[in-house]
Amino acid sequence: MRALGDDVDPSLGANAPGPQVATADGGVVVGDANAELVDADAPATWKGPFTEYGRYGEPTGAQYVRCSGCGVEVLEGETEHATHRDGCDGVVEVGR
Q1: CB 64 within 8 A of CB 58
Q2: DSSP codes joined into one string, 16-76
Q3: What's the number of CA atoms in the CB half-sphere (13 Å) around residue 13?
Q4: What's the pTM?
């Protein structure tokens, strides 16, 4: 029986600059200056605001924010009404 990774070329990614992370398919992901580092243990925060666009791609005039933990989106200023997805503890609101 072959072990997982026996067929992966050990020199794969050897010439890639910077930090390297092995991926499930045997490739290598290399971070760059524009990469967003994600800390899985960091508490969720609201990202944004982002411009909301309507059905035909026109801005609606509203703004929304997105939970970094589960991705749920809610209109800016209405975050206390957000229902977070399973497994997300939600965002700890300042002053609450």
Answers
A1: no
A2: --S-EEE-TTS-EEE--TTPPP--TTSPP-EEEEEEEE-TTS-EEEEEEEEETTT--EEET
A3: 15
A4: 0.54
